[in-house]
Amino acid sequence: MDLANVYRAEYGRCVATLARLLGDIHLAEEAVQDAFTTALQKWQTLPPNPGAWIVTTARNRAVDRLRRETTREARHAEALLLHQPDEPQEVGPVRDDQLRLIFTCCHPALAPDARTALTLRLLGGLDVPEIARAYLIQEATVAQRIVRAKKKIRDAGIPYRVPAEHELPDRLPPVLTVLYLMFNEGYTSTAGPLIRTDLCTEAIRLARELAALMPDEPEVLGLLALLLLTEARRPARLGPTGELVPLADQDRSLWDRDLIAEGHDLVRRCLRRNRPGPYQIQAAISAVHTDGAATDWPQVLALYDQLLALAPTPIVALNRAVAVAEVHGPAVALAALADIDLPGYHRLPATRAELLARLGRDTEARAAYHEAMALATNETERAFLQRRHTELTRTRRTS
Could you say which protein family the record assigns here (predicted)? Predict the structure, then answer.
């Protein structure tokens, strides 16, 4: 019985369900955490529906807490909870609850960074270190943002609901960011197994729900296409012994052709609307990678040029440098890295190491690999960097 896996899979759904029942996100989170503590003490084997067990236990804990309160609001909330069915429905299929939670946490009254940090914590069950890695900032900063956002929701009385149609566009950018970052954490986790299938699956499911809710928003379709095309490559991402396999070395016959076809169709739909945005361009890049037996790198570079113009971030510049290396060579790409500042991000020195190795600058490449290994937090990625370093050293000795 692995309670940690249940926590990762069910936490966000349970908090969303309890938030609907309680109308209080902070109380919902505390109740769910208490329920998982109880599960740790009581479970010998997994119950038939772990999510429902957690919700029932959390609801009972919340009732106990509300009974200790003396305010009229607390008595009213207790009455509502007591009239809920004794056995909640299956948590897994619940969809509206999670969309409500996303839109509540992404309310425009909250600071932009606080919105996504709070939603990643509540919906994805991501820990503070994982969110900090997504933002490339200090953990203390993330913790402060989450605390402030919860307080703001409580003090401002922000309603727990999917907003009216005319309110949706203002909420959309942070919602898309949340789903994008949730999927990224699932595709390359901060620690533990490289891939967290539960997060990837949930991000895609919610992206589909969002596309059904807002079918005329090309960036919603673009995000869904991006997630599907990335997910399509997952079966080839790890080798027989669990080692990381880079894109260039992947067995393309293992890629999910149904997801690729769906993703390509969504990209074509976006192109017909002619309202380009960052997620659509990233989806188009993924479409090029999954079209045919080899990647059309000049086309990828042209798309990265467009993306950099729309979203001039260091991460985009770093990814563009990889395309530059394939089109114009490692020396030009290495020069492009010089102005990129990403402190603490292991993929910058890792990319530099690859380029230096291709240029035959082995001593500098080994130093860059060491730097990347020191910054990498996922053991699978660290092992991949170590393998590259070892191969470089072995080649040097035999040449």
Answer: Belongs to the sigma-70 factor family. ECF subfamily.
Q: Which two tokens stand for residue 22?
A: 């309680």
Which among 11, 31, 5 has a CA at the least distance from the CA of 125?
11
Give tens-digit pLDDT for 38-87: 998 999 888 888 888 999 999 888 888 777 765 655 555 555 555 555 44
Digit-coded pLDDT (tens) for 261-305: 999 999 999 999 999 999 999 999 999 999 988 899 999 999 999
Intervals of CATH 1.10.1740 along the chain: 1-90
Whole-model pTM? 0.84
The first and second tokens of residue 382, run together, are 């660290």
**pLDDT tens track for 56-65:** 999 888 888 7
Give CA separation, 116 vs 104, 234, 245, in Å.
11, 25, 30
- Write a three-state SS string for 293-354: CCCCHHHHHHHHHHHHHHCCCHHHHHHHHHHHHHHHCHHHHHHHHCCCCCCCCCHHHHHHHH
Q: What secondary structure, in 3-state letters, does 148-161 show?
A: HHHHHHHHHCCCCC
